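Anyone up for a design puzzle?
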């Protein structure tokens, strides 16, 4: 099995913790991240692991901008309500939309491709097509707004 890149591993960490946030009330996100690193991960992750740090930036970014990200997703998810989406799909979309809208250092094609890889790994082919369609719409909307 190929070794995951630091950033992909970080996105997976963020996805898994965001999923946990959907099902549990989280009062201290830093505590949850450390619990994930030491207890919940399939293999122990050190606190200074760059993947954990990258995942934490994605997690904090999504949580900080969640209302704006969800609004963006609602506008671009034609015929889909966020509350009807599978939790994993929704959180993959949140990470992808966060990177598209708030991370100018991540090329848009990379942000979308990484979201697709998460969808393929954690959901399946149908979800990856779903994620691709919505994130592509987010990108087109963002690019259109930038030209205006």
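Challenge accepted. My sequence:
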């Amino acid at each position: 099995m190929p070794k995951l890149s630091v950033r992909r591993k970080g996105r997976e960490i963020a996805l898994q913790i965001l999923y946990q946030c959907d099902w549990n009330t989280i009062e201290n996100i830093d505590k949850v991240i450390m619990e994930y690193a030491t207890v919940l991960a399939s293999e122990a992750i050190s606190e200074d692991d760059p993947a954990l740090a990258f995942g934490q930036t994605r997690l904090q970014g999504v949580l900080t901008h969640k209302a704006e990200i969800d609004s963006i997703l609602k506008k671009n998810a034609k015929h889909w309500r966020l509350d009807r989406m599978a939790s994993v799909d929704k959180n993959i979309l949140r990470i992808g939309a966060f990177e598209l809208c708030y991370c100018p250092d991540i090329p848009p094609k990379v942000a979308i491709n990484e979201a697709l890889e998460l969808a393929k790994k954690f959901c399946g082919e149908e979800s990856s097509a779903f994620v691709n369609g919505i994130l592509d719409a987010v990108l087109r909307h963002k690019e259109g707004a930038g030209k205006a």
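A detail worth pointing out: The first helix runs from residue 6 to 23.
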